[in-house]
Amino acid sequence: MHLRLTDEQEMVRKTIRKFVEKELIPLENDVLRNEREGKPSLPEGKMEELQQKAEEAGFWGINTPAEYGGADLGQMMLAIVQMEVARTFVPFQFGGSADNILYYGNEQQKETYLIPTIQGEKKSCFAMTEPGAGSDTRNLRTTAVKDGSDWLINGEKTFITGGNEADFVMVIAVTNKELHQESQGRKGVTCFIADRSMGWESEYIHTMGEWGPAALIFDNVRVPEENILGEIDHGYDLGLEWIGFARWIVGARAVGAAERLLNMAIDYANERETFGKPIGERQAIQWQIADSAVEIEAAKWLVLNAAFTLDQGEDNRHYASMAKLYGANMGNNVIDRVLQIHGGMGYTRELPIERWYREARLWRIYDGTDEIQRLIISRNLLKGHVKIG
Ligand SMILES: Cc1cc2nc3c(=O)[nH]c(=O)nc-3n(C[C@H](O)[C@H](O)[C@H](O)COP(=O)(O)OP(=O)(O)OC[C@H]3O[C@@H](n4cnc5c(N)ncnc54)[C@H](O)[C@@H]3O)c2cc1C
Fold first, then answer.
1. Which atom of ligand 1 is nearest to the CA of 125?
2. Rounded to whole angstroms, how far apart are CA atoms 280 and 377?
3. Of 49, 185, 315, 360, which alpha carbon lies 20 to 30 A from 353's?
4. What is the pTM of this model?
5. Where are the alpha helices (DSSP H) in the chain?
6. Separation of 28 CA from ligand 1 center, angstroms?
7. Ligand 1 mean position to 84 CA, how many Å?
């Protein structure tokens, strides 16, 4: 057992940190200004420019298999990269990646959707949630009914990340109502790849964060049979895989943000004087800093464990839920303390803390709420799927 990053991992971490400090952090003021003026966080073309710079530094397709031109660095490296990039709120993503479930596509689907997504020519989104079915996917109502050699999709999806920008959606629809009910929602649904040009529409949903997901409307959207991703009636498994991947990444991002914010609080605690002393000399402040540092460290190990387990080819879902649950809550606790340590300044829009505070609240909700993660973890233990110790 080796509880340190390898030389290679350490080198990647340092390189990404340099990239974040040189290319992303200097954009933070512009991002804040744009968002406050109701404009997109980054001007058009800026993401592509940044992705190109990252590619020149060797970071493209971080987790994409080599046969698709990616670096295929593995999950541990992905965790390290995500923690580093989350040190800024500038909404940057490395180029050269695609949703994990698109790799299940047949050759034609890979050519039409997977490869253009990796190349940055097409944008995707994944749609499971509906107004009446979030945690409880047994209530899915969107249907796909066979019509000749096509399927007609009807229904509404909600809170779909990237749904306003996407060129195509991987949408989960009920294809066999009886099977869906009998199997408690685990079967009887199918994943369809539907191009925007096939007729679905999106509506922006305003949230307390700086970007909005979309409601997607399907009104007799005609999708050809060849656009079924995976097997008919087995779309739920794909859905779980899509959500499961994103889960522990939420924990990783919370670690990165919390580290940066705690550093801000430490600097402020050393500088800000009240009653003749820096506030950092008060136990009330010291304990907030200590608790935050301990929680960040704990979350980091949970995230690395989830990533390591996956790299071993093992089922990491239990650890992914732990990393997500603890990481998301840690992130919210730390940001709250950092805001408190900054006093009134923390509450202003002169500092980015309030922005992070609003964004962090989402971590406890999407990709499975806190309550659902607790349900998964406790069920695994109570049913003996996972043993303590
Ligand atoms: C910004 C944003 C982006 C999102 N992106 C996507 C996306 O790209 N694709 C997608 O498909 N979905 C997406 N979602 C949906 C997200 O995954 C759901 O909002 C989430 O799963 C919760 O579902 P819900 O909102 O319907 O809440 P509900 O399921 O109605 O839950 C309401 C409350 O009850 C609790 N609860 C529910 N069931 C139980 C239970 N059995 N025991 C105890 N408590 C319970 C929940 O934890 C929650 O606190 C996104 C959501 C948001 C806000």
1. 8
2. 38
3. 49
4. 0.95
5. 7-19, 28-36, 46-56, 75-85, 107-109, 115-118, 177-182, 235-271, 283-311, 317-341, 343-347, 353-363, 370-382
6. 30
7. 27
Give the residue carrying structure tokens 């340590």. Answer: 341
Q: Average pLDDT per run of 10 along the chain, which is 389 residues long? A: 90 96 97 92 95 93 94 94 97 95 97 97 97 95 97 98 97 97 96 98 95 95 98 96 90 98 98 98 98 98 96 94 98 98 96 96 96 98 95
- The residues near 305 (Cβ < 8 Å, ≥ 6 apart) are 319, 323
Q: Can you tell me which atom of ligand 1 is nearest the CA of 128? A: 11
- As for ligand 1, residues whose beta carbon falls within 6 Å of it are 126-129, 134-136, 159-161, 207, 213, 362, 365-369, 371-372, 375
Q: How far is CA 150 from CA 171, 227, 228, 342, in A?
A: 15, 9, 10, 58
H or E element, residue 159: strand 150-160
Q: What is the 3-state secondary structure (H, E, C) of 181-220?
A: HHCCCCCCEEEEEEEHHHCCEEEECCCCCCCCCEEEEEEE
Q: Whose CA is nearest to atom 48 of ligand 1?
A: 369
Look up residue 151 and give its two tokens.
């399927």
